[in-house]
Design goal:
With 208 residues, the chain is an alpha/beta fold. It has two domains: 14-50; 58-201, 3-Layer(aba) Sandwich (Glutaredoxin). The chain is 35% helix and 15% strand. It has helices at 20-50, 54-57, 98-114, 133-140, 190-201; strands at 69-71, 77-79, 87-93, 119-125, 147-149, 166-170, 176-179. The strands form two sheets. The chain has a five-stranded mixed sheet with strand order 5-4-3-6-7. The longest helix has 31 residues, at 20-50.
Amino acid sequence: MPFESGRGLGTAARPSGHGGGRDLNIESATRRALLQGAAALTLTGFDALIAPSASANALRVGAPAPSATLVALDGQRIATSALLGRVVILTFWATWCGPCREELPLLSAYAAQHAADGLTVLGFALDSPEDAPEKVQAVARSLSFPVGLLANSSLPGYGRIWRIPVNFTINRAGQLIDDGWKDKDSTWTAERLERIVTPLLSHPGGGT
């Protein structure tokens, strides 16, 4: 059936007769549903595009932390499963991330200060292996903890790393203590390190 001239896009001609009123109601209801759907997409669509994957939603504070393996720049493989008995921080950064570059010296100094207390920090760089490996190496030389490229490492249980800096903290018993996805700002500060990590180092049996 041809479209009537002068009508808006997507508004088809309605046949005359007794069914016209019913068709008008159906068309109006359809248009309302489309408008409501468009409004919902406007409000939530962008967040949906950048939200972490479903596996990150399975993280639970107090539950066993998913295994993660860092492949360091020197080729060494360091798995969290081999670090039971130590407090572990997983930190994610990139050379092009300004807040990350501000956080790293603080975290490096804290890691060096507390290494003998049982703290291990693993640094995952989001830089592309093809683009700037020498930039990552330059930063890594200034840090007290091992660094590797995320692209070469493995940590499927933490979801897609969609914002940085982000950090995860694991206690001596292998339990997730701080979930960076749940923090409004998971950037390390001296106050956050003292509040979250230092108490864990004082509990030889694990701690919460």
